[in-house]
Amino acid sequence: MTPNMSYKRQKTILIILFLLVPLVSLSVFAIYPAGYLVYLSFMNWDGLSPEKTWAGLDNFREVFASPDIFSSFRHNLVYLGWGFLQNAIGLFFALLLNSRLRGRNVYRVILFMPFIMNGVAVAYMFNYVFNSEYGSLNTLLRAAGLDSLAISWFGSPGAVNHVLAFITLWKFMGLNMVIYLAALQSVPSEMLEAAHIDGATRWQTITRVILPNMIRVIELNLFLTIIGTLEIFDLPFVLTKGGPLGASDTFLTITMNNAFKFNNFGLASAMSIVLIVMVMIVIGVQRLVFRRWAD
Fold first, then answer.
1. pTM of the model
2. How far is 264 from 258, CA to CA, in rounded Å?
């Protein structure tokens, strides 16, 4: 910059230079891929051919007309239900370990450790727990004389999604607990002391003082849970490959299969757009609910 340049111009140039890298990165890695995804959703393309043919809304019609595709959201709803339970348990342990419990730091580390473990390693570990022949759970049930409960956990259409969702709960509950712990420690101590002086019970303090001050954190955790359950992929892909007979297929595993197994990138792109819209709708409903609760 020349010495004769005005301060205002120097400031403008500096702002542009500082914004240039993030804006270019955003354009290259976010805006362009998103726009190309929308473009592909209206095309028929196998992912290899240089030519793409116009499909119009046919890909979107197939998404909503195919019972195997759109009905897979029912499997995601199982994860969503367990996700709400995951948040409740995380909040419970956060309230418990925020007290003057002896050894609470050790318990915090133990509960948080599953989150830092690799997802594929967790999948293989639980494969040995729920294996129908040599799994530790069925071995324990048979040893206790409960042979009727020793089922094929990954081979039962009614149980497989609940088993996979339980593994998700085990892995991510510690993260929810840590986030809630941070929120609890930010609740003003004066409000807690005032509630104690007024004779509020522990339950009244939690429901009338603590939870209202954690509303934004609870909303954040539920946001992460909803996103995670709608985009679940790794566990069913590694453990069941969508089986038995598609009973554990999620919307994202079907999307990946259409793209990389059946080479139908147009349909997979349309499914991705539908998933994005579904996430936006669910998050919008969540915001309305929490806005009314906050009011």
1. 0.85
2. 5
